[in-house]
Amino acid sequence: KDRAMEKIKDLTLLSDILPTGYHGAVTAGVGPGSTVYIAGAGPVGLASAASAHLLGAACVIVGDMIPERLEQAKSFGCEVVDISKGPVGDQVAAILGTPHVDAAVDCVGFEARGCGNSAHKEVPAQVLNDCMGLVRAGGAIGIPGLYVTEDPGAVDEAAQFGNLSMRLGLGWSKSATFTTGQCPVMKYHRQLMQAILYDKIKIADAVNAKIISLDAAPKGYMDFDKGAATKFVIDPHNSTGEAA
């Protein structure tokens, strides 16, 4: 118990974002020497990036448009691209010398934004199309990002019923593999717990985890909605002694 409590901030993340991000990396085929693009620098995206490092990736590139989140990704060794500054492929090419990666992970989902001049508006299929454009022939795309059957608030009528303008022909022409669906969280628990306990991954640092009280939860949700580069962990009974 004492050993677990020393790492409780990390172990708590086994409940959701670490297995989800890890699942995205695994289903994208990340392994030793891989080049990887992670779309989204929220908690799941950062967890996926940390997981890619754990799996042995040579270069992990994280894309987002919020400067604080990009800085958080850089803090544990990721390269970054700012989607508001133009096409992702061009920025990836500036890093790798090629606009292609071995593996891509969509940690954004159905509320994706566009790139460049379109970054201010919703473009639901943007990340899926970016991933299909980036991944090499025979590569794989992990999609832990949430896509829904209906979204009444979507930008157009088609997207309101889950119909997105995907370049499926591009993915087909590359023989790309797509893996979607809810993460089987329990499948990864033991392996990831051991990785945490033996200091192979410092997930709380990677996602900038912050323990807060139940009273502070509403503000935490508001800050997260604004794009805070923080994963808020609620400790209602202050069992850690860290709840603020």
Describe this structure in words.
This protein has 244 residues and is α/β, with parallel strands linked by helices. Strand 7 (209-212), helix 12 (217-225) and strand 8 form a beta-alpha-beta unit. A 6-stranded parallel beta sheet has the order 3-2-1-4-5-6, sandwiched between helices. A two-stranded parallel ribbon has the order 7-8. It is built from 12 helices and 8 strands. The protein starts with a helix and ends in a 10-residue tail after the last strand. The longest helix has 13 residues, at 185-197.
Topology summary:
Layout: H1 2-6, H2 8-12, H3 17-27, E1 35-39, H4 43-54, E2 59-64, H5 67-74, E3 79-82, H6 88-96, E4 101-106, H7 126-134, E5 135-142, H8 157-160, H9 168-173, E6 177-179, H10 185-197, H11 203-206, E7 209-212, H12 217-225, E8 231-234
Helix pairs in contact: 3-4, 3-10
Count the E strands.
8
Order of helices and strands: HHHEHEHEHEHEHHEHHEHE
* Structural class by helix and strand composition: alpha/beta
Largest sheet, described in full?
6 strands, parallel
Q: Rounded to an integer, what's the Rg over CA atoms?
A: 18 Å
The strands making up the biggest β-sheet line up spatially as 3-2-1-4-5-6
Give the proportion of residues in helices.
Answer: 25-40%
User: Which regions have little confidence, pLDDT < 50, spanning 5+ residues?
Assistant: none
What does the overall shape look like? globular
Terminus-to-terminus distance:
23 Å
Strand content: 15-25%
Whole-number mean pLDDT: 95
Tally the helices: what do you get?
12
